[in-house]
Amino acid sequence: MSRRGLSLLLALVGLMVVAGCAARTVTPVVTAPKHPDFVFPASAPGSAQALVAGVERGWQFMQAGDLRNAERELTRALKTSPQNVSAETALGYLELARGDAGDALPIFDRALSRDATYASALVGRGYALMDLKREGEALSSFEAALKADPSLVDLQGRVDVLRFRATQELVARAKGASDAGRFDDARAAYAQAIAASPDSAFLYRDLAAVERRAGQASAAADHLRKAAELDPSDARALASLAEILDEQDDPVAALAAYEKAAGIDPSAVPAATMARARDRVAVLKLPAPYRAIPGVAQVTRGDLAALLGVRLQTLVARAAERQVVITDVRGHWAQNWITAVVRASIMDTLPNYQFQPNTVVRRGDLARTVSRVLSLIEALRPAAAAKWRNARVTVSDVAPTHLSYPAVSVAVASGVMPLEGGAFRLLDPVKGPEAVDVISRLEALAR
Length: 447
Description:
Layout: H1 3-24, H2 49-64, H3 67-80, H4 85-97, H5 101-114, H6 119-131, H7 135-148, H8 155-179, H9 183-196, H10 201-213, H11 217-230, H12 235-247, H13 251-264, H14 271-284, H15 288-292, H16 301-311, H17 313-318, H18 335-343, H19 363-380, H20 405-413, H21 432-446
Helix pairs in contact: 2-3, 2-4, 3-4, 4-5, 4-6, 5-6, 6-7, 7-8, 8-9, 9-10, 10-11, 11-12, 12-13, 13-14, 16-18, 16-21, 19-20, 19-21
């Protein structure tokens, strides 16, 4: 072959090689991306055209599954601008495409060290953390990405799933710690769960339960209020809040919370609890001397009449009334209740028509009043009276022949006035707490 022919042959081969190389490096047109969840790392405005084109070519190769050419293009692009966030981020995604989250994570972290709000790197970092089973950190990274770029709407579903998983895990951890009495650990776990899912009312309610057990009533009340704010239909949170308010001696606020809870779910508040709450509020409207009775050293006849008239109002109202004349109670704070119990024959005036409301009540006097109330209860509930009807209780200091014995025997047999060491002590003054207890027992029998 002539020298001219050899030169033409070599030139032709060179053209074929060049043509072949060009064919192999043509950027593919991707119609079905291999990694559709990856977020393209867009370059900042004003970036060099060669850099932008290199990142785009590398991304296309990666989405086509050609990771070798993708690496070549992205490495070349990064060399042209070593501090470029988009090229660095794209290389992080390349490691994810290879299935190597451990190598991808530090690459995303380097990119974010240059731009902490770069959404693409935040998303990639989240994927790497998920693959590494660090879901709590992945959730934070995804949430930061959404904050940086709200247009990433497809990411919201993944965030919701992660938040649910993280919340479940933290709640399980919190309950385990609470059951074991590790209240600080339980509170910390609930705090993390709330950070992951701040709009979940039940988390605040459950945290409040832990705080109550730990003796942190005020903090518990605050979290129950937050639970009720987030979910106004949460009857359990409202009922628990009412209990705390009751314990903190705020009966008005407690009753309001109880009534709100019962309005949502009647089973959330026992009837007895509601009745007691209403009674506590009603007491606030009563005269100061009445509210002071539980603490007095000696109960007076006026005090006793008021207790009977307030606590046994229905029973007193049902009793047959008699005409009475009382000359010494006008202007007394308990006048209306004194009149009511005397008309109901539960208490009497003296022969001179005086009631003597300031006279101290002794246990013998109280026993006679109790026996009359028990007679009214017997008329309404005959079966219940079998416990005390015709009772013959042995009392060490009251003989069966004593005038007070029938009343004492009935009061003791009914359980309303128990003996103390076998003795009744007729002449002992009645203290405020004792009078309240006695009326409470009568009230229970009358129900």
